[in-house]
Amino acid sequence: MKLCRFDDNRLGLVKDRGVHDVTIAFDVLPEFSYPLPTHDAMIANLPAVGKRILEVTWYPPIPAESLKLLSPVANPGKIVAAPVNYQKHHAEAAQDPRIHSGNPAHTLTIQQAGLFLKANSSLVGPGQGVAICKPERRTDHEVELAFVIGKPGANISREDALSYVAGYAIGLDISLRGSEDRSFRKSPDGYTVLGPWLVTADEIANPGELDLSLTVNGETRQSSNTRHMILGVAELIELASSFYTLHPGDIFLTGTPEGVSPIVAGDRIVATIEKIGSMEVEVRSA
């Protein structure tokens, strides 16, 4: 099942080359009072929402390109990101001063650096685009396989890890280059793009064998396969959950392959991952 959020927080089922409005399926979500939960309610109740979608009447499909696609996850508790998780990107980052900007963190392996967190306020969908916040500095694209946690867990073994995944999406980790900590310079508003929809985990048996690519204005900049990740999805869950509890709706960005390069206002990014699809993202001035 492919689920998207669009326009004014509508829920869509992506099928038959279009999007069916199934917002009525939200009626199975529990009501909350203050303090509100610190996880995403739809993801926490995804099996019930999916069952309800199959019960309701589907509206005629709408072309996806006519919709403003939002992040398929509205309320993540946290966004977890993996640095230098492809060996060739680690090499290019360490060797190119235009990427590492003298930041010694780029010389560390992912095992040494660990993971980092991005601000939830950086999250947008592809229809919202990317606004360059510091045009005087270099800003890069980074295409990444993203996945979303579906149930709470801590100290999760890699053998059990995939059972905690609700689904997969395409992620863009937009990166401002500089000497600051990753969490700071990768967290401006709009610098985490998630979409175009969430593909439920049952549709992707092996997340470690997916082609991914990115073009800017039609020119291929990145092209690789998730088999080249240093730590795969299961290992990333094992590592993260050994430090903090994971909750439904937590988003993981799994790292980017080689080929990162600058983007500027006016560029059009197309990011593609096998079995998920493609998303188009416009870059603009803030």
Task: Name the features.
286 residues; alpha+beta; Fumarylacetoacetate hydrolase, domain 2; 2 domains; eleven-stranded mixed beta sheet; five-stranded mixed beta sheet; 7 helices; 15% helix; globular
Protein model, in words:
The protein has 286 residues and is an alpha+beta fold. It has 2 domains: 2-70, no CATH class; 79-285, Alpha-Beta Complex (Fumarylacetoacetate hydrolase, domain 2), CATH 3.90.850.10. It has 7 helices and 18 strands. The strands form 3 sheets. Strands 1, 2, 3, 4, 5, 6, 7, 10, 11, 13 and 16 form an 11-stranded mixed sheet that branches. A 5-stranded mixed sheet has the order 8-18-17-14-15, with no helix packed on it. Strand 2 and strand 3 (18-21) form a beta hairpin. It is globular. The two termini are 35 Å apart. The mean pLDDT is 95.
Summarize this, please?
The chain is α+β, with helices and mostly antiparallel strands and 286 residues long. Helices cover 15% and strands 31% of the residues. A hairpin with a 3-residue loop joins strand 17 and strand 18 (277-285).
Distance between the termini: 35 Å
Fraction of residues in helix: 10-25%
Query: What general outline do the C-alpha atoms trace?
Result: globular
Question: DSSP helix count?
Answer: 7
Beta-strand share of residues: 25-35%
Secondary structure: number of strands? 18
Radius of gyration: 18 Å
Please state the second-level CATH architecture of the largest domain. Alpha-Beta Complex
Number of domains: 2
Low-pLDDT regions: none
SSE sequence, one letter per element: EEEHHEEHHHEEEEEEEHEEEHEEE
CATH class label of the largest domain: Alpha Beta
Helix/strand structural class: alpha+beta
- Mean pLDDT, to the nearest integer, reads 95
Major sheet details: 11 strands, mixed
